[in-house]
Cytidylate kinase
Amino acid sequence: MSAGDAVDERAEGGATVIAIDGPAGSGKSSVARAVARELGFQFLDTGAAYRALTWLILERGGDTDDEATVLASLGALDTLELTIDASGQRVAIAGHDVTEAIRTERISAAVAGVARTLPAREAVNVRFRAIIAAADPGIVAEGRDITTVVAPDADVRVLLTADEAVRIRRRFGDVGGDEQQVGARLSARDASDSRVIDFLHAADGVTVVDSTDLTFDETVDAIVRLATEERHD
Ligand SMILES: Nc1ncnc2c1ncn2[C@@H]1O[C@H](COP(=O)(O)OP(=O)(O)OP(=O)(O)O)[C@@H](O)[C@H]1O
Ligand SMILES: Nc1ccn([C@@H]2O[C@H](COP(=O)(O)O)[C@@H](O)[C@H]2O)c(=O)n1
């Protein structure tokens, strides 16, 4: 029996939900996607919603540090398209395909203004919870507040982490450029995000997976194992 079959059996009474939080560069999106693929589950990248709103505000010439501007953008969430296919993601907002555009440093640098606006968090969370509730046969959702706010009742709750220096090295491997600058940006985003939500400490019942000394595949296996063990409990 494959890991996917084993977890699917558990899902007979409802979809299996795996929630993963962690700091920037900890591997949330790449590892969560690989876990979802392995289990035949859907995949929800919640950061993509914050990034898409940020893209729209900047596209309209707005400033994400201006709360009124962020609030005025929330109506556009009705137009947000987030695919939950683990084999490939498409993100669109207000009719624009922003799949690639939301990954730029310009968006990463401006997203904090959206993330700290509580009505924005509440609005995207309504959307995330609806997606999770409709999941079939299961879903891996990743972000900063999935284990604590969005899906605190998830079947498997993981805080995925790694030493900051390792996360910076991995991110530098992805984006290149000046390693010091890459590190400074990553640290600044964590500092700003952690003022809004605590994703640096595991809440009760959340399992820490520290990938500092793990390969990518070992990290994926560790989370798949947690999901499979949960099914046998
Ligand atoms: N255990 C691991 N060993 C080696 N590389 C890893 C491991 N886990 C993740 N990576 C790599 O680290 C990089 C960062 O991962 P990823 O972009 O998934 O992080 P993230 O937590 O989603 O970041 P962010 O929150 O900034 O979007 C990717 O290149 C990924 O392949
Ligand atoms: N659950 C979440 C997810 C994301 N954010 C904010 O969005 C930014 C981008 O997220 P990535 O995972 O794509 O890097 C992130 O820096 C947070 O500001 C959030 O607040 N909650």
About this structure: The first helix runs from residue 3 to 10. The pocket of L45E5XJ5 (ligand 2) is lined by residues 24, 46-47, 50-51, 111-112, 115, 143-146, 189, 193 (CB under 6 Å).
